[in-house]
């Protein structure tokens, strides 16, 4: 039995990231949520992924401030010192934003997670995925219409990107319906069809990227210890290959899907970490899902076209090269344009590990584009409203266009910079400009 006034080190907390002993730290208090996990309205899976660490930023960004009261009787002690940056609690800007957003949902009489129209893009993504697959590997079409299967391969890449932007993204943010089973089904569909792991992505995106966007050494995309092949921050050590990065980003970005399909299962099951983010011991269910997803992916990509439809291996490889390269370029450009530019902030915690206002950081580290264009919004899974998404990741993307003016007005009142460009191309040009800037050796004109 643990006494409620006990003081824990971060290592002790870390060792309690299992289903038998699940502890989590929020604002310096350590809670035992082993029993609570089964009753967590956000589902057991999300909670179990977050235990064994200081989950303050993630918890506060997703829950009403009152939710912490539910945990009061589960407090078992305090954390001696956190290894995570700390944001101030509930600044006036955050409080007003929260109120304005809540007022909007009260006015329209909707729940932020309920948006039945989202079924349309979900169905389009899956529909195009299977239609294009059929065209790519229909022996008759391939014989009669030589070009069509290659166009279908591009559409297959596009639909894989859309599955990521819609089913994976919304499932991992729990932003469609209030039912954990639905979120689970959405992200598992993505696993089965794309050969990527949504469990790993929860760690990368929900635990790593979102609470600490662009924060050096905490956002897994901005690590000084892992210089990477692209340099877009001054904290990354200089490598002479960066001189060429404005040119090689295209082939580099294009191979992202292939690289992930090979590395993700290793990171999840063998390495048990994503860059700087450790992964808690996995339940049997996760191994079974991993195996099923891998088999389904191999069946779709190899067994069916090679053994049953008798396509040769070179043709299969080239078809998937078309698909994967298009898919990777499409997603990478959207992601990079919406946050890797000079105009957004790249904050650092101070010496005491303290950060500025979390909401302000989310807005100022985002680059929005093409507000009002329904076509762009559809094509980029609403990431053209990046600031709103980062501020309210649990709200269905269906509501972003309506919420953006409310957020912008609140930003204007509190003098918070809201970055917005007219089109994706403008935002992309800013990204390319930043890469060009960091392709010069420090001290040689950067
Ligand atoms: C990605 C991770 C998480 C997701 C997606 C998530 C999601 C949710 C959702 C959807 C609710 C229902 C209320 C609402 O709609 O706001 C909820 C409630 C709650 N969650 Fe989480 N949660 C996560 C992590 C955590 C963590 C780390 C804790 C800390 C122990 C936690 C503790 C709670 C508590 C105490 C409630 C309120 C329960 C009640 O009112 O009875 N959640 N969560």
Automatic annotation (TrEMBL):
One of its GO terms (biological process) is unsaturated fatty acid biosynthetic process. Pfam families: Cyt-b5, FA_desaturase. GO terms for cellular component: membrane. It is an enzyme of class 1 (oxidoreductase). Its EC number is 1.14.19.18. One of its GO terms (molecular function) is oxidoreductase activity, acting on paired donors, with oxidation of a pair of donors resulting in the reduction of molecular oxygen to two molecules of water. InterPro entries: Cyt_B5-like_heme/steroid-bd, Cyt_B5-like_heme/steroid_sf, FA_desaturase_dom, Fatty_acid_desaturase. The keyword Nucleotide-binding does not apply. The chain crosses the membrane at residues 115-135, 147-168, 287-308, 314-335. SMART domains: Cyt-b5 (SM01117). Keywords: Lipid metabolism, Membrane, Sphingolipid metabolism, Transmembrane, Transmembrane helix. This is Delta 8-(E)-sphingolipid desaturase. It comes from Phialocephala subalpina.
